[in-house]
């Protein structure tokens, strides 16, 4: 074989190899930037529990996550085989760097350190929008499905969520009931309305908000028990933050008082205590979303 022929073959092989390398990566565009992610990354660190939920549902293992206040549903990750990479708000950058991750997955609580993390490894921001919760779940699940070659599985799971959401919305519509979403936090109260982090109850599950004027804020709008009695909702959906972050007074203790007992929701047995770990720190995933739907469906 002539030298020219050998050179041509080598060039062709390099071209083919380059094409294969390109085919093994995908570009992930998100609201904080863009990441070039290797297909089927083996060393994954997760700060977003919603994404962890979806990865677990897909059968994908990880190497590290923040273990403080780990939701009970993820108890298996307390095992020493999974590295503790800091807290939800304070990543251990040195530990993460030493683990040589192929991919880092974050959410809102880590948004401020996105640039630092993206210097260590490709980092994707999985955003969940309160005003379009189900849409966010679909978008994020499809990104992970593409990265790990689980597109068909993800579409099947999303179809289950779509059907369950439609069934729930129809029940809510027929009931014609209104509702108030309340977070109890070790003695204090805040409420959430449409467009908020828990607004899916109104925006997509269909409950009429008893108060249309609730301000949209990450920590909700502070209220009193007198306010709840004044609004007198048909249903009260309660998230117990203290049960997740620690506290001395449970939501159920707080709601056993004379003012709440005067509400229609209390009299009719329509105070629904939600799975606080899922709603507060682990929403946005495939399994967690089905849990949220079942929580609200329990109202019927």
Q: What's the helix-strand series?
A: HEEEHEEHEHEHHEEHEEHEHHHHEHH
Helix content: 40-55%
- Please name the fourth-level CATH homologous superfamily of the largest domain: Nitrogenase molybdenum iron protein domain
| CATH class (first level) name of the largest domain | Alpha Beta
How many domains, in number, for the residues? 2
Q: Count of DSSP helices?
A: 14
**Cα radius of gyration in angstroms:** 23 Å
Strand content: 15-25%
Task: Spell out the blueprint of helices and strands.
Layout: H1 3-23, E1 25-30, E2 33-38, E3 44-46, H2 49-58, E4 64-65, E5 83-84, H3 93-99, E6 103-106, H4 114-118, E7 123-125, H5 133-147, H6 151-175, E8 178-185, E9 188-192, H7 200-203, E10 208-209, E11 221-223, H8 225-231, E12 235-240, H9 242-245, H10 251-255, H11 258-261, H12 264-267, E13 271-273, H13 276-281, H14 286-297
Parallel strand pairs: 3-6, 4-5, 6-7, 8-10, 8-12, 12-13
Antiparallel strand pairs: 1-2, 8-9, 9-11
